[in-house]
Write a structure and sequence with these properties.
8 helices; 10% helix; mainly beta
Amino acid sequence: SLLTLTHILGFTHSFVLSCLLHSFTFSFVLIITTMKMARHLRRHHNLLSVVVVVVSSCCCFGLLLQLPAAADALTNDEICKNGIPAGTQSTINTGEALTCDNNDIIHISGQLIVKSNTRVRAAGMFVDATGTLTIGTPEEPVRDVHIYLNHQPCDINSDACKRQGALWSEGTLDIHGTPKTPWTLLQTDAPAGSSTLQVSACDNWSVGDRVVVSATGGEGTRYTNTVYGNNADENFEAEQRTITAVDAGCVVTLDTPLRSRHRGSWLGGIVPTQAEVANLNRSVVITGPFHRANVERPIEGGQGITTRQHVRGVSRIDHARVENCGRLAVGEYCMHWHVLKSCPSCYVKNSVVEGGVNKGITIHGTHDALVQNNVVYDVRGASIFIEDGNEMNNVVDSNVLMCPSLSNPVALAHFTMDGTGKHLRGRRCALDGHQEHRNSDFDEQSGLYALSPSNHIIGNRISGHDNAMFVNHQGYGVWGIGNAARRVCVASMPFGRTERNVFHNNAGFGWYVNVAFPMDVDLTADGHVSDWNSCLPFNMATGADNAKSFVIKDHVEYFNDFSMGTYDLGDVTFENAISALNNKGAYWKTYRRGINSGPFAKNLTLVDNWSYLEAPGGSALVEFDGLRLVKLNSADNHKPRFVVNHHCGLPNEQTGGLCASHYLLKDVTTTNPGEAALAPTTFYSETSKSSALLLYNGGAQWLNGASNRDERGANLAFRAPDNCVISGYWGGWGNNEWMFCEGLDDVRIVRIYSPNRGTLQVTTAGDGSFEV
């Protein structure tokens, strides 16, 4: 009897029949024992046996009721109408479909498991705080799962509308599709007319998969002739094809030939001009209808599906595809982490977002999460969006953010566009209609747009957008927006790691910051400022410099207009960066360098840019520690300029600083035979009223005053010694000349920050003292 009772108490819900059998066996054993012990109560044993049977059976079913319901215990109609109650579990098994009415939202408080080869159709899915939606696991990923979220056009401001067409989770969301290579690089050039691609990896790529090959400039040799040439459209066009064959060596055969050349090799062995090749198919698809706001103007967006992890819970998505997504309202994004705070277990990896509006992947009020190896293609608005300004320590790693054709704000020459998006050209990835996010989505549409720079941007490849990456405040959120409003100092927030990114074929900037002077800001665990004094450049009590310098490592830009740059930014070092084939090698206006910050550039390589640099004004020491100037196109007679004082001293603009920067150039080399490294006439000043010094080749160079000393004359920093010579004309207004003085390469700028204390006495080591 005790053994049998032990069996009963140790059963699991998988052995229901065994439990019933044990119940009656236990009853029978007890009946026989009772009969032996109480023969003299023979008239009572029938009553006892009945009691035993009832008690035993009740014990068994009582235990059953405490376990989750068996798989498929609920009917489809029950799941659609009533959801999955807490403590219960239902499974959509292989080959099955769950089809709900058009208005049914599946409410998951227990667990819903979706197996391979299944279909789910509903108006939405809601996973509450106690619920779990499991579509595969890392150990057992699924294949061929299709989730269709039906919805009709509705008032996006209503809560009912927001739940229609939405996969909304406040519990646990696990989606794991079958692994495959999400994107790879072209290994050899694919010329126009080619029907094959040699790629570096192609795990689980199949016939019928759609792939897209990024633009790499066609036959262009630099940004200017690529944009203004006769094949401008093709030069900046990503091409989508279908795989008809793929062999073991990753040679992929396409259904139709390519229109233009896509590069697969390194330019001159220096610049990694390899096209990205992204696979757009995944084994889990989340989709639905897309209702356009204006069928004639796709740029106005519309209403698609949305997915979000909201306020709590955890979201883990791997090898999934989200399409026909996004809506014209704050928070209505294709993929959205909404105010999760610290979520180190959250990730979206190896997935695809295609054909959406109003952001691809949004990180909002969330920290410590991972966005890795994803493909965001043909999405209007920012592809990846970091929303409020307090987000910290998220890792955005190795994603491909690609616009199909150049998304530029003006109709450049030779482009077949009208700027409306009507013909899917011009502002191809811009979104017109979302006013709160107009800066990120329309005016400065960007592949990656961030209010908070305090995240790690590593190994991403961004092409086809207006800007590849833009750190800005949406034009109005200098103190944060949304939940972070008045809780952060956006322009002072520290930067995270920025490494190994490749930004190419964008209409405007590659790496771009509007205004930022990063400081060592005291922050709470949620990224809010805890001491507002720490947003200032100096400790006002001790005078200590508060700059939080950062390094951009191994960065590559090619075929962009402005390349890497900013309006106002300091305390940054570009280390081992390459800027090639751009209109400008870099673009800067005002620069600051704190006492503990490194050089502006360390081992910077500039290759066949129209101008070497448009370098900042301001009053800082702009130091280049290792500068390599490379000319690969020997047939091109153009001589690039090194522009100094860019946009300094402008009376009618808010941008630009003083015209008093010092440029220190060390270890400068050139590959152009017969051309000296940075000849004096290479330098160009945007203003004649300048106090800038160029320190290189063992001397100092600066602008001499005009011969007639008129208002165009330079603001001389000091009287020229006798050994100075005129080194060349600067190419600007008036008769200004460059003066070069040998032996003055140790001159440095001194900046004094002080209230007005009258005349100050400045003493230098070994050189006496000066009054200022």
